[in-house]
Amino acid sequence: MATRAARSAGTAGRTQRGKAPGAVRCRRKFLRFFPGGFRDETYLDWERDYKWAAHEQWASVLGETEFGALVEQERFAEVALRAVRVESRTNLLFSFEKMALRDAVRSPKGAEQFARGLLEFLHGEGEPSARFDAWCAVIAALPRRQTRVLTWPLATVFGFIAQPSRHFFLKPMVTRAAAREYGVDFGYTSRPGGEAYDRLLGFARVVRRDLSDLRPRDMIDIQSFLWVQGSDEYEE
Question: Which of 13, 97, 121, 170 has its CA 20 to 30 A from that of 151?
Answer without folding.
Answer: 13
